[in-house]
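Dear colleague,

Thank you for sharing your sequence with our group. We've completed the structure prediction you requested, and as agreed, I am returning the results in plain text so they can be pasted directly into your records. Please verify that the sequence below matches your submission; if there's any discrepancy, let me know and we will rerun it promptly.
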Amino acid sequence: MRLFFAILFCVLSAPALVAGTLIVDGEGQVSRAPDHAVIELSLREQGRDAGAILLNLRTRLDSVINALKQNGIDEKHIATQRLEVRLDYDYDQKQRASRDYIASTSLRIRQDELSKLATVLDVASALDVDGLSDLRFRYDPTQADYDLALTRAVKAALHKAELIATASGQSLGSIQEIRENGSGGDVVMARMEMSAAPQVKGYIAPENVTISKTITMEIELVDGAAQ
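Please find the predicted structure tokens below.
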């Protein structure tokens, strides 16, 4: 009569052998150079008259957009992200009193030519804006990138399974299930205030972007003595 062995490893973050089945995780990564940058500029107005500060903000926003277009930024790569108006309050002796209205907005700029990014940042720093609130380098992954990352994840899981099976005196049987867990591909290069970002000279060297895939694999175990 064939004997079945239930082997359980209760080790945190380690693969588990349960009732003749080995469950392992695998991760595959692909590193690519960024192909574009995303810059976010912020503008802010404060005053007693909500209508007046909104008008001032709109005027400044139009001026910034026109300046960006005049410096070679394609209009389709410039987008207003948000518009917020709120009351600012004074808290004196536990009493709340309204003080000013605060209106704020932001512009999102996509720059595809990274060799010209320093020039774009110099232009932005000279504009009538209150801050460079975000700078990210991004990469638009292709299907081939995702496929390669997934292939590497499967190979990593199989390699791990083979090591565990050999060390425990078992052999691998057929694969019962493969589940894809998720993916990612974004890196943050920098966040800084405009006051801390004077003229930027030369080429900015960004970090590579990592595209990752993770899988969980369930494989049958065959006891060595039963073969």
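Summary note from our side: Residues 1-14, 187-199 have pLDDT under 50 and may be disordered.

Kind regards,
the structure core
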